[in-house]
Specification:
Length: 541
Amino acid sequence: MINTNSLNILGQFYFNLKENLKKIYQNSNFYEKKISKTSDKNFEYKPSPHLLSSIIKYQKKKYRIEDFAVESIWLNKMNSEDYEKLNNFFWFFSLDLKSSKKSTQSVISNWINNNNKYNKDSWEFDITAKRIIAWLSNHQLTYEDSEKEYRSIFNHMIQKQTNHLLNEIKNSNEVENKMIGCAAIILTGLAYKNKKIYLENGLNLLKNIIKSSIDNQGFPKSRNIKQLVFYLKYIIIIREWFKESQNIIPEYIDETIYYLGSSYAFIYQNINNDIFFNGNYLSDNQEFNQYLKRFGYTFKNEFKELAGYTILRNKKIVLIMDIGSSPNKNFSKDYQAGALSFEVISNQKKLITNSGYFSDKTNKLNKLSKSTALHSTLIIEDFSSCNYKKKNSNFIIDKGLKILKKNIVFENNYWKVSASHDGYLKKFGSIHEREIEFYPEQMKFIGFDKILRKYPSKEIKFDIRFHLNPNSKVMKTQDNKSILIELEEEGWKFSCDKYDINIDNSLYLGNKNSIKENQNIFISGINNEKDQIIKWEISKL
C-alpha cells in the first residue's frame, strides 16, 4: 500500500518534471516564434500616468533620467527586490517629464538588447505585466519624438511581452499577479486599437478572475481585506482606461466596482483604522480615498455583518469580530486561524487587537502570524483552530473550520455578538463558543468563552489571550483578578473573577514585515471533560 509520504514524493517528482519541461520549452525557438507573432500597429491610445496614482507611490521629488547611470544601470549587482523594481520599470513614474526622452528611450533599447528573448528572471509574470503598464503609461518619455525604427521595436516588444502573459496567465499561482496581468493585456488591447484579440482575451480572463475569486457580496473569497483593496484599485484603473480611451465600459466592470466598493465602505467607512484579520496589516488609505473622491467614486454600506466579519460601532467604540468560516484551501494562502477573535477601538485607538500579519513568505514569522495564539481568542493545548500545509512558498489550509451558529444584536444600549466554531471538534471533541456583550452607557464589555464537550476525551488545557496595543501600559492588581490598562489618556480594567489572569510578552506585527513587542492578557485553565464557561469583563475607568 502506498503511504502518504510516498504520494507526496511522487507528486513533487511530477511537479519538478513539469517545471523542467516548461523551462526547456520557454527557452526554445518554438516558444520564441510563438510569442514573436506580432503586427506593426500604431500605439494609439496613450493612457495618462496619473490614472495609476492609487497604486504608485509618487515621490514629491521627481528625478531626471540624467541622474541615473543609464549606460551601466543593468550591470550593477543587486538583490532580488531591487532587481524586480528595476525590471518592472515602475520607477519611471518618478521621472521628471523634463527628463531626456532620448536617454529614457535608450534605457529601454538597452533593456531590449539584453532581454529580447524570454528570460525567467526579467520576464517573470508580474514583472512583465508591470513593465508593459509602465512603458505605455509613461509614453511622454518612452515613445514620443522617437525614431521610426525605435517605435517599431517598442511596439513589437509590447506585443511580444503581452503574448507571453497570455500564454502564462493560467499557470500563474497568485491571483494578484493574474489581476495585474489582465490589466496589462487589456491596456495593450486599448493602446493598439487594431489588436482586439488582446482586449477580448483580457476581458474574458478578468471576468473569470472576478467570477472565481469574488463572492456574490463583493468580497474576495479569501476574506482578505488587503486583497479587497487590491482588486478595487485595479478594476477602477481598468475602468478609467476604458473611459479615457472612449471605449464602452463593460457592464460587469461597473457592477464589480459597485460591490467591491460596498465591501470597502463596510470596512473603512465604518472604522478609521486597520483591523488585523486574515492577511491585513497597517496601511494608509488616505491617498486612495482622495483618488476615489477625485474620480467621483462614492460607496456606502451600513451592514452589521459581511464576509464573516461583524462591525458594531458608535461615535466612541468599535467592536469587530471574526465570525466567518475558513475559506476554501485554494484561497487560504493569507488566512489566519483567528476564528472568534475580536478587536476593540476606543476613540480611534486600538485597545484589544490581533497581532497582525507577517507577509514575507520566506520568514518563519509568516506561519507564526497565522497561528491562533497570535489572535485575541481561545486556544486549546497550543494547537491552532486550523491546520496548515506548505504548498510552493505558501502555507495553505489543510483542515479548516466552520462557523456553527452566530447571532448579532445591535441596539442603542445593548450590543451582542455570539458565534461558535468546530475547529477543535475532531482533535479535542470540543466546540468553542464566544459571546460578547457591550453596554454603551456603562462602557463595559462582558465576554463568555464556552468550551462545549461533544464527546469524551482527556482533560485539556486552554488559554484565552487578549493582545494589547503596543502603546498600552498594564499593571496587575494584588488579587490577580484584575489588570489595569492605560492607553494614552484612557484607563480600562480587565477582570475575571474565577480564574487567575496574567500578563505575557508577545509580538506585534501590525507594520508590514516588522516586529514590535507588545503584551497580552491571558487566562489559563484546565477543562475536565465537562462544558465550561469562562466569564471576563473589560470596562472603562
